[in-house]
Amino acid sequence: MLPCTHITELARPLQFVKEEWEERLQFLECVTSSSAYAGFTSLLFTNFSVVDKEGALEVLSNEQCPMDDGLTRTWALFLQRPGTMYSL
Question: Contact at 8 Å (CB) between 56 and 46?
Answer without folding.
Answer: yes
